[in-house]
Amino acid sequence: MEDLIIYSSTDGQTKKICERIKDHLSPYNKFKLIPLNEVADENLKFCEKIIIGASIRYGRHSKKVLDFVVKNKNILNSKKTAFFSVNVVARKKEKSKAETNPYVIKFLKKTDWKPNKLSVFAGKVDYPNYNFINKNIIRFIMLITKGPTDINNSYEFTNWENVKKFAKELENL
Fold it and tell me: Are residues 109 and 135 in the same domain?
């Protein structure tokens, strides 16, 4: 039986983090990496562990992630679960922990879900791959939050050692 790593990724960074988590888990752990929109109810019922990773865009997790967790909260609360959020605000030390990250706090309050493990990872600003509107909105947000604004570059803030550490913590989930 395979356990699940479910992801909701806007630009691919959350998926990349999930892949890295899966790579760091021991081969004895049988996890299937699956996008949120491909998860069937049967997948949830027949696994023991569920890890969910979700990205932030414009200050919110995807409505699909919120709806999924609310719909499946009873199943999730009966399993061993972990949740992590990927957001650029986590690049700031004071918002780099699940208990201090405003998006994680808000998400858990809205869903009333209680995962066994929580984390947050800083994401990536990938200006060259954004369309005109996203590029400029994100640039404006970065200007306000004192982040990088050069639209010719990408900026990866993910601390891969923290991802590895979280994966190792999941061994005991």
Answer: no
